[in-house]
Structure formats: C-alpha cells, structure tokens
C-alpha cells in the first residue's frame, strides 16, 4: 500500500501535467465572430412564395383530394409548385457559381 509521500508525489506530477501547460502555454487566439448571411428575399421572391401558398390552398379547396383522389391533386397542386421551386433553386445555384 503506497504511503502518504508517494501519493502526494503522484498528485503533484498529475497536477504539473495538467496545470503547467495551461499556465505557460500559448495564449488562446481571439475568437473571430462571423456574420451569418441572412437570406435576402427580394420582392419577386416574396411574390413567388405567396403565389405558391395561395396555389396550394386554392387547389386543395377546389379539388378536395380527400373526396376525389390524390393523384390528380398531386399533379395539379404541389407538383407545379415543387417544379417551380426546383427550377428556381437550380438557377440560383448557377448564378452563385458564376460569381
């Protein structure tokens, strides 16, 4: 069984390994705050969002897919909206790539 002196020596070595590098090590580099780029919504983008929401709402109310079936509703309701936003996303990607 280790004696009191041996235990103190082990504790001192562990503290030296942990504490000394923190005291005499390099100073931490300052943290650089990055500004997040927010999504810029132009007037046309806002109009497209509202038209998409209205298209989905009116097509749902007019076609009543819960009564008539989902297939025709998917092709005329969310289908064109998804196609439009997919094309918009692709075009936006090519514009950013050209910068």
Offer a quick outline of the entry.
The protein has five helices and no strands. The termini are far apart. The protein is 75% helix and 0% strand.
The radius of gyration computed from the alpha-carbon positions, rounded to a whole number of angstroms, is: 32 Å
Q: Percent of residues in beta strands?
A: under 5%
* Tally of DSSP helical segments: 5
User: Quick check: average pLDDT?
Assistant: 83
Order of helices and strands: HHHHH
Number of strands: 0
Secondary structural class: mainly alpha
Shape verdict? elongated
Q: Main sheet?
A: none
- Classify the helix fraction into a percent range: over 70%
**Uncertain stretches of 5 or more adjacent residues:** none
Straight-line distance between termini: 72 Å
Which key features would you list for this structure?
5 helices; mainly alpha; 99 residues; elongated
Commentary on this structure:
The protein is mainly alpha-helical. It is 75% helix and 0% strand. It contains five helices and no strands. The protein has helices at 4-24, 43-63, 65-68, 70-76, 78-98. The longest helix is centred in the first third of the chain and has 21 residues, at 4-24. It is elongated and about 85 Å long. The termini are far apart.
SSE blueprint and pairings:
Elements lengths: L3 H21 L18 H21 L1 H4 L1 H7 L1 H21 L1
């Amino acid at each position: 069984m280790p004696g009191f002196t041996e235990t103190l020596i082990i504790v001192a070595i562990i503290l030296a390994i942990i504490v000394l590098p923190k005291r005499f090590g390099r100073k931490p580099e300052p943290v650089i705050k990055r500004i997040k780029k927010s999504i810029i919504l132009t007037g046309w983008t806002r109009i497209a969002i509202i038209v998409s929401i209205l298209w989905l709402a009116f097509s749902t109310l007019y076609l009543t897919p819960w009564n008539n079936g989902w297939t025709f509703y998917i092709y005329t309701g969310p289908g064109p909206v998804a196609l439009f936003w997919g094309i918009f996303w692709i075009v936006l990607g090519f514009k950013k790539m050209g910068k």
